[in-house]
Amino acid sequence: MRQYLKSAFAAATAALIAQVAAAETKYQPWQQDGVAKRPYIFTQQHNVGKETDDEAGGQLIRLGYPLQVQLPGNPALWTFQPDASLNVEYLGRTMVYSPNRIEGTESIQVFDLALTPDAASGTQGYFTFTTEELPPSLDKVVPGGIYVVHFEVIEPSK
Prior knowledge:
By secondary structure, this protein is an alpha+beta fold. The protein is built from 1 helix and 10 strands.
């Protein structure tokens, strides 16, 4: 009986793993220019605004891929700073209600960005967002309400 239960458990586990694996492929990457591309997603943890230029590590971004920034909102209302950004274009914003996902916030603000048309492999850039109302839970990762990410553009095949 014990051997039968072990076999039944193993079979059930294998079936569950197969279902989970199949479910992972259910959601396909975003289509852009007829090619499936997943966006680069940046959160408050990618902030380098608190570091000097020497400490700031740049992100590698494949040419032609979409960019998305997801920052905790309400009370923080983030604003894209075009004059403090380089080689990116602002495309728009969406707000997702998500109370206390990050302590003291009520939503996630999702910003869509794109590399500028003249960006090429080796191009350096950065994007900046600011807020005037930062909850205390974010003081250490986004000091002063300034969010900055530095990047370098690379070829899509790398």
